[in-house]
Every structure is written in C-alpha cells, then in structure tokens.
Amino acid sequence: MSYYPDHPDHAKEARKLTNRLRELGFNAVIFDHHKLQVNELGLPRWISSNIYKADMVFVIASQEYSVVYDLTLKSIPESTATLQGYVTNVNFLRVAQELCDIQNLLFSGRYRHRIMVIQLSTGQDCKREPISYFNQTPFIWPNQEEEIISFIHDYKRQLSNT
Questions:
Q1: Is 96 exposed, middle or buried (0-12, 13-18, 19+ CB in 10 A)?
Q2: Number of neighbours of residue 6 by Cβ within 10 angstroms
Q3: CA gap 20, 141 in Å, rounded
Q4: Rounded to whole angstroms, how far apart are CA atoms 128 and 26?
Q5: Mean pLDDT for the chain?
Q6: Residue 129: CB partners within 8 Å, gap ≥ 6?
Q7: What is the rounded CA–CA span in Å between residue 158 and residue 37?
Q8: Half-sphere exposure (CA, 13 Å, Cβ side) for 2?
Q9: What is the pTM of this model?
Q10: Which of 47, 75, 78, 94 is the most exposed place for a label (fewest CB within 10 A)?
Q11: Residue 79: pLDDT band by 50, 70, 90 thresholds?
C-alpha cells in the first residue's frame, strides 16, 4: 500500500482499508504496521522488497501524493521553499522511493495490471488531477468496497491459472 498521510483522517482511513483487506485474508502491507522491519532493513530496502514481491500494489491517490509524484517523477518545477519543505519529510522520502519502484515495475512492461489506484472517501476533495501516469480511474474506498474486493479476487484467480 503506497500512500501519503495527507491528514490524520486520511491515514486512519488507509489503515482501515489495510485492516479490512487483512480480515478478508489478503496480506496487505502498510508502512505504519511494519516500522520495526523498516528500522531493521532500512527504508529503501524495505520498500523495494515489499513492492517487488507484492502480487498487487495499491496506490492511494491524494492531494499530497500527487505533489510527491509531481516533484519526483514528473519533475514539475516548484519553488525552492516548497521543495525544501518536502525533502526533509520522512513521508515524502518514503513515497518518492515507492513511486520510483512502482515506475520501475511499470517500465518493465509486465506489471501494469499489478497497480490499483484507490482514492479514499476522506480525499475526495482533492483539488489536483488524479495521477494520470497510472492510466486508471481510481476506485473510491469505502464506497466501492465490493468492486475493489471483486477486482482483487479476479486478479488472484488469474494468478493461480498461470
């Protein structure tokens, strides 16, 4: 699960989504639940190992996530003050690493179907465009819980048939 905690309610909702997926038997991984492992492996190594071994990567699209995307992958020029405010932020650094690893998956050409974009109901007031890079219309959590779960089950069935 790749997300930027825009505000406390947003982070809480991301954890709820992760917990719900775990209740349904999926091994959903979110940074917040694995801080001890992160400390042991180091942040970049922990992120890379989890993204590359995941059957599916969930991108939680949000206002701040889009800013990190713009500053790292899209290279949108921002004021130096804005950039300096982000580069010392651990969430910025984590999401930037996650985006780089996700980009590498996408560039390999085999993994586009492994990325699922979700927008949390707490983030529906996002003023920025959705991240077009993923070329997906985001699912809305929890409003579209059934569709999200169905999509995951269908994908798992495809994996087991290959």
A1: buried
A2: 20
A3: 11
A4: 31
A5: 81
A6: 66
A7: 30
A8: 32
A9: 0.82
A10: 75
A11: very low
Looking at this protein, which amino acid is placed at residue 127?
K
Chain position carrying tokens 């300096």: 84
Which tens digits make up the pLDDT trace of 120-138? 887 655 555 556 667 778 8
Closest C-alpha to 91, from 31, 2, 4: 4
Quote the CA–CA distance of 73 and 10 in Å, as a whole number.
23
pLDDT in tens, 95-124: 989 998 988 888 877 665 688 889 888 765
Q: What is the largest CA-CA distance in the chain?
A: 51
Q: Three-class SS string for the chain?
A: CECCCCCHHHHHHHHHHHHHHHHCCCCCCCHHHHHHHHHHHCHHHHHHHHHHHCCCEEEEECHHHHHHHHHHCCCCCCCHHHHHHHHCCHHHHHHHHHHHHHHHHHHCCCCHHHEEEEEEHHHCCCCCCCCHHHCCCCEEECCCHHHHHHHHHHHHHHHHCC
Contacts of 96 (CB under 8 A, 6+ apart): 68, 71, 72
